[in-house]
Amino acid sequence: MGFITFENVDREYHIGDNVIKAVDGINFKLEQGTFNVILGQSGAGKTTLLNLLGGMDSPTAGRIVVNGKEISSMSEHELTDYRRTQIGFVFQFYNLVPNLTALENVQLAEEICPDPLDAREMLQRVGLEKRLDNFPSQMSGGEQQRVSIARALAKNPQIVLCDEPTGALDSETGQKVLRLIREVSSELGKTVIIVTHNASIAEMAQTVLHMRDGKIAETEFHKNPKKMEEIAW
Amino acid sequence: MVRGALFKKSLRDMQKSKAQFISIFMMAALAVAIMTGLDSIWFTVQNHADAMYRAANLSDLWVTVQNPSEQDLRGIRQIDGVMQAEKRFSAEADTDLPGKPALHVYALDDLSTLDQPELREGQFSKYGGGAVLDSEFAKAHDLKIGDSISIKINGVWVRLPIDGLALNSEQVYAVKNAATIVPDPEAYGFMVIHTGVLEGVYGQKVYNQISVKTAPGTDLAQVVQKSDTIIGKKLIGTTLQKDSTSVSSVNGRIQQFKTLSVVFPLLFFLVTALITQSTMVRLVESQRGQIGILKALGYSKRRILWHYTSYGVMTGALGSAAGLLIGPNLFGRILVPQLKLTLSSYSIHINYWNFAFAFLLILLCTGGVSFYACRKLQGDTPAVLLRDKQPKKGTHVFLESISSFWEKIKFSSKLMVRNTMKNKGRFIMGIIGIMGCVGVIIAALTIRSTIAGLNDQMYGNTFTYDQKVLIDTGKADFRYLNNLELDGITQQVQESAIEVICPNGKQKMEPITITTRDSPLIHMQDADGTLISLPESGILMTRKLCETLGVKQGDSIRIKRTDKDYVSVPITEVTYMASGQGIYVTNAYWKSLDETFKPTALLIQWNGQPDQRFLESDIVVDSATRESQNSGLSSSMQTVNFAVVAMIIMGASLAFVVLYNISILNFVERIRDLATLRVLGFHHREIRNLVLLENYFSMLLGMLAGIPIGRFISWVIASSLDERLDLLGNITWPDVLLAAVMTLCFAWIINTVVARKMKQIDMLEALKSVE
Question: What string of DSSP letters covers A64-77?
Fold first, then answer.
């Protein structure tokens, strides 16, 4: 059994009289400390998969086991605790709290976690030591995403989940952000899962899950994933 | 105009923000309902009372004089402006009915046209020996036409058949004397008879009053002065129509509701405007892109502006329509009968000017405010509007400059502080809403405890007798009463009315009490509770009377002596008395004015059991225990409780609507932030607290601000409640605390409702994209 295990996981949605299987009988295993990518067109079920893994949603069938715990059978309250202690999130649109400064956005995470990393240090790691007291509205997209990364990592989670983290950024900034995610998470030994439709990102991953119509169409393993510099966008 | 697609859009938009638009609607309806409701009360009372005064041909003034002669009457008729003058008899009479109720008896000449009773049943037969009885009194005592009733006038019992039942324009507010707070048809009523009846009893016609009707616009002060000269020493006093107990009480009520119809709705109009403002600002901001699209399609600026203004106009117009229906029909219909006035009709009269005013005011608060709220966005070009909106700006707040403090507080508190500062309008709305709620409730509770406290004030501190015994002045005088050896403390008092002339020219009859200087059973105090003794020379006047007459301590007024000229007396002391305004003098000073002390009542504080033999002796006309006088006050509490409940409901509705709106807006606007927090691993309860604790911040300030507001409203109500009462309307801490606790309960209820609503919303949805 892997660090993250999905066994026959289904997620159905009822929209009117229609039943949509966003995730349909998925099986996979991922190891701890790896860098993984879930690749697929929009509507392939990537985000649903990420939500299931992140404890934001529960499957309609199947088992999800993370770090030896079955999260698919957890209560709402247990799932919140799971998110609190195990998961770091990075969103496409950063989702910073506009009313809090960069530092405070990171401290936000610090406040609820049992074993957080220092907020200032994390912001220093993402290169924002000079923007601590700026509000999100005063920062560029790339900078906001870096705050978001710092926030995800400051919680000191086991798993970092990124939903199209470069989706709203230009390619140069996107590369920088990705490199940052990769560097910092490997330094800290975190398991990273990135959801994207950008195939070129996949080349830097150890495992790539190709999703199509709610199913895993193909699983790719890279023994020696490419370095960021080698990837052509 | 609103039509077609845009109209549909506005309807759908409103449906999306149901809660807010319903709130605006409710507040608008309440504001208009309270305004027009209170307005319809005084307007109805005024119309019906005026109609009754006209129908009865109510006199403009009454000159009280012992046995007026034909010459006196002719003299008065010749005064400029006097159209009619008639002699009549007016006095109080005892009855033999259970509970010993009293009747005010008016005896009119056969040809009289002034001060006629308004017959409801039967007739007022000329030259007959029958009586017309107060219809309310008859109802209370189960008397019908054809029954007989015994009354005792001037010591003689007369039995009279009841010929008719009527209302009386002089007894619209039917109270026996200043000590009675609320009319009670069980205890007091009126009767109208012919002077012929008195002739049958006394052997001659008896009169003691001249009723005078003047031409409109006549200077009544002149008429009073001239009558005074004509009557001379025999004059007892003059009473203007507006000073008579009933008319002044009715006018007092009218004035009271006029004041309230301005003071109360203000808060509601203000809150309507604030809710509209916050709703429309948010709506217009969230429709930035849509405005851009409309502009790009070629809609004119004015068209778009009107489109958004129409949201407010429609809601406001609907709300005020509901308010106009509810106000007079609900408030008016319920409250007018609660005033305990005996009117010929209680049908609601509507002041259409006020309707129009309320309607325009509410349109200003809704439509006007909507217009203002969306005016800002109009300047931008479609291109700017269509572009994605910048993330909402965060700003540093003042508190951050105190870094030692800022560093220490939790991020959640920081978030609350910044959010509050960003949404100042909403914050102020919260403060005003809670302020209004707390203020109105404090006022309601204060009025209640003030009136409940009247009992203790009057019969606990001021009057300490057990029993008040009315004495037959023909059988017992001062010396006789002095020599009575009763087991207890006694105090002799003479109670009557006296004509006074003030330095400012005011002339009217006021109650006077003459008693012994030591006054062991009546304890005068000033407003602070310091004891005041009756002055050796000069008079003591109650504070409220000083105010009414426009005199102060140190002034001299002239008072009319029995069968003698006026004499000037100084106001040596001023006392505070909650109920029973008047003049107090010592018997020694009274004698020094060349008057005689003729006690009309004996106050007794028994050492043991009341002396039954004395109470049953023939010098005792009537006796009342303090408890029975006390209970008269208690019966008025029912009306007060009703008003208190109505006010608390009003306050609560303010709190509910305002808090609900702030909470929902606070939640909906930040749903994305909150969803992020949720994903980060915040528990539902933590997020709920984050949103709802913010309310307690504005609540705290609102409650503090509510205290002076409550003080003000209490004062307005206390001072306009009743001319005969001198209420301070001081707020007390228990009442303030109770109001605060009630408000907190309302807040708790709202928070529970909002928290439930928060749980229902799918936070994942909110995360998906930028708004």
Answer: EEETTEEGGG--HH
- Residue A24 CA to residue A11 CA, distance in Å, equals 7
B393, B437, B441, B439: which is closest to B418 by C-alpha? B393
Q: Give the CB-side neighbour count of residue B356, counting CA atoms within 13 A.
A: 3
- SS3 of chain A: helix, strand, coil, percent, to 5: 35, 30, 35
pLDDT per residue as tens digits for the range B239-298 = 899 888 889 889 988 988 888 888 888 888 998 998 888 888 888 888 887 888 888 777
Is ipTM strictly over 0.90?
A: no
Q: Does B666 touch chain A (CB under 8 A)?
A: no
Taking only Cα atoms into account, the Rg of chain B, rounded to an integer number of angstroms, comes to 33
Dihedral (CA of B590, B593, B598, B600) sign? negative
CA A229 centroid distance within chain: 22
Q: B501 CB contacts (<8 Å, ≥6 apart)?
A: B507, B557, B558, B559, B560, B566
Tell me the pTM. 0.78
Q: Is B409 on the interface with A (CB under 8 A)?
A: no
Provide the 3-class DSSP secondary structure of residue B29. Answer: helix
Those residues with Cβ within 8 angstroms of residue B557's Cβ, 6 or more apart along the chain or in another chain: B500, B501, B502, B503, B539, B549, B551, B568, B569, B571
Which element (helix H / strand E) includes B102?
strand B102-108
Interface membership of B416 toward A (CB under 8 Å):
no
Write out chain A residues lying below 8 Å of B683, CB-based: 77, 80
Q: Residue A164: which of A93, A79, A225, A214 has the closest Cα?
A: A93
Q: Residue B675: closest CA among chain A residues belongs to which residue?
A: A95
C-alpha count within 13 angstroms, C-beta hemisphere, residue B272: 34
Give the total residue count for chain A: 233
Would you say B566 and B560 are in contact if contact means Cβ atoms under 8 Å apart? yes
Give yes or no for a contact between B488 and B607, defined as CB atoms under 8 angstroms apart. Answer: yes
Q: What is the DSSP string of B689-715?
A: HHHHHHHHHHHHHHHHHHHHHHHHHHH
Q: Is residue B487 within 8 Å of residue B608, measured between CB atoms? A: yes
Maximum Cα–Cα distance for chain B, whole Å? 104
Instruction: Name which CATH class applies to A4-95+157-230.
Output: alpha beta
Q: What is the number of other CB atoms lying within 10 angstroms of the CB of residue B408?
A: 9
Alpha-carbon dihedral A22, A23, A24, A30, rounded to 10 degrees: 160
List Cα–Cα distances, B517 to B175, B464, B532, B593, B598, in angstroms: 30, 16, 11, 16, 15
H/E element, A18 = strand A18-30
Q: Where are the domains of chain A?
A: 4-95+157-230
In terms of DSSP bridges, do strands B118-122 and B467-471 run parallel, antiparallel, or are they unpaired?
unpaired
Q: Are residues A95 and B672, on separate chains, in Cβ contact within 8 Å?
A: yes
Q: What is the pLDDT of residues A96-135, one digit of tens each?
A: 888 788 988 888 877 788 888 888 988 998 888 899 888 8
B413 Rama sector, left if φ>0, alpha if ψ -120 to 50, beta otherwise: alpha
